[in-house]
């Protein structure tokens, strides 16, 4: 299945795009998505360890299954002061 991921903040800067597509097998989990993102976009690896992923507007843990046509967002930590 094809999964569309919206990237924000530093993730967008590292990849150079705001939206990317990843191919995953049916029944894949958020953890599977993290691994595939690391493979296809190695510059994201350090950021992925600290980032949250939202699945259909809800924060998702790594065991969450990704349904067809899901909306996914990669949300890096925000710093400021």
Shape summary: globular
Count of extended strands: 5
Order of helices and strands: EHEHHEEE
Distance between the termini: 40 Å
Structural class: alpha+beta
- Please state how the strands of the largest beta sheet are arranged side by side: 2-1-5-3-4
Q: What would you call the quaternary organization? A: single chain
Helix content: 25-40%
Summarize the main sheet: 5 strands, mixed
Q: Give the integer mean of the pLDDT values.
A: 94
Low-confidence stretches: none
- Strand coverage percent: 25-35%
Give the radius of gyration: 12 Å
Helix count from the secondary structure assignment = 3
Produce the secondary structure layout.
Layout: E1 2-7, H1 9-15, E2 19-23, H2 30-40, H3 45-48, E3 52-55, E4 58-60, E5 72-75
Parallel strand pairs: 1-5
Antiparallel strand pairs: 1-2, 3-4, 3-5
Comma- or semicolon-separated keywords:
alpha+beta; 27% helix; five-stranded mixed β-sheet; 81 residues
What does this structure look like?
The chain has about 80 residues and is of the alpha+beta class. It is about 25% helix and about 25% strand. The chain contains three helices and five strands; from the N terminus they run βαβααβββ. Strands 2-1-5-3-4 form a five-stranded mixed beta sheet.
């Amino acid at each position: 299945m094809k999964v569309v991921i919206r990237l924000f903040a530093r993730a967008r800067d590292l990849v150079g795009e705001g939206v990317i597509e990843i191919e995953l097998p049916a029944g894949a989990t958020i953890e599977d998505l993290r691994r595939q993102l690391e493979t296809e976009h190695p510059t994201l690896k350090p950021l992925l360890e600290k980032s949250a992923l939202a699945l259909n507007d809800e924060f998702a843990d790594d065991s969450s299954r990704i349904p067809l046509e899901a909306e996914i967002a990669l949300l890096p930590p925000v710093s400021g002061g």
